[in-house]
Amino acid sequence: MSVTDNPRPATFRLLVVPGVIVDRWSRTWSQRRPATVLELVPAEAADAPGRMPSHADAGLVRLPVDRDALHAIPLYTEKTVVVMPRDHLLTAADELTTAELAEIGAPLLRPLDDVLPRTEEPPAAEDRPATTAAAVELVAAGAGLLVVPQSLARLHHRRDLTYRVVTDAPASSVALAWPRDGHTDLVEEMIGIVRGRTANSTRGRSQPQAAPERPARKPAGGTRRAGPHPRRRGR
Where is the composition biased (Polar residues) (predicted)? Predict the structure, then answer.
């Protein structure tokens, strides 16, 4: 059997950063593009934008991104939460503020892969956990608290930990991004899926040109005058 008998299926590569759930979008893709494999490419949030287009056609990434290199459509902004032991005194509150976190005096861990926008200077690198996963382990050991997007708190869930929303903390936004010179039909399909367009939506797609109208044919034997037909007289 020759290689051409089994051609390699078309593939659309999509970067996905930690915390982003794509199950629903993946199912929709398989329904609308069954002949094109959706390949999910895991990527760390800081590395994802730079991996397009060499490693992926588009990506579900965290903002901000370089708008000179990438197009980006913001999809949603996450709630920010503080992760803490289940027996911590702050669990008595349903929601918290940054001032209340400061009053408690517990160290706020800030991992090197932190994705929240910050205005203050970060602590020295040697004082920071390498990853969010490592920071969660330190929270479980009672070494401090961790402020992260809610999806990351769920991703690193542990039975001995819980979290509460921090109402005035910085928030992280997720976007669909793709290279400025890489807007293809498949990218447009993914845009439609994440934006909730129906399968019949034609927005953003090239439309077939309408066939030119054909001139009406004249009836054989010349043109008849409008009006009632004369009645035939009986014999």
Answer: 198-209
Q: What's residue 2's pLDDT?
A: 52
Nearest to 170 by CA among 88, 97, 74, 85: 97
Say what the pLDDT of residue 214 is: 52
First-residue to last-residue Cα distance in the chain: 83
pLDDT, tens only, 122-143: 888 889 999 999 999 999 999 9
What residues in the chain have per-residue pLDDT under 50?
204, 206-213, 216, 222-228, 230, 234-235
**What does 123-183 look like in DSSP terms, one character per residue?**
PPGGGS-SSHHHHHHHHHTTS-EEEEEHHHHHHT--TTEEEEEETTS---EEEEEEETT--
Distance CA 35, CA 122 (A): 47
Two tokens at 225? Answer: 């005058």
Considering only CA atoms, give the Rg of the chain.
29
DSSP helix/strand/coil, 25:
helix
Cβ atoms of 172 and 80 closer than 8 Å: yes
pTM: 0.81
